[in-house]
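quick one before i forget lol
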Amino acid sequence: MPDAALYFKAVLISAGASALCVLALGGVRRPASAARLNAACMLAIALGLTLGGALLRLPLGWPPASALGRLLLIVLPAAIWVELFAGFSRIPPWLAWSLRLTLAVSASRILLHGSVYLAGEKSEWTAWQQALTLTFCAAALATVWVLLVHLAERAPGVSN
């Protein structure tokens, strides 16, 4: 049974380190630009994930052998790099969205690589089930990403 206290400790350390990183890099006393605040948030997420994973002693090695390893070593770092890149004001929006959608489309395939669901002829799923599942997962992730970017770009204020 997983140790709840260890998980709670990892969450606290991750959240605390991330908050301190945003405060230090984002600037408490002076207003931060959107690009600088975005970079601070992306670095804070990376720091929080790294510290939390280190505290939990997650068995990660290269090449990643499990879906958890591929999530932590490929998909999440790629998402952080895409958002870090997209946060710069000189990057055209079409390029940022191309990168986001490319990752959204490939994330489920990366996570399911080598599983019984995508094992070629010995697969648990038929070809149409694979295509339907991967398409649905890509569409769901892309939809959530669009909504989160839209939410992040909203003007701050009281919700209506």
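fyi Helices lie at 4-26, 34-56, 67-86, 93-111, 127-153.
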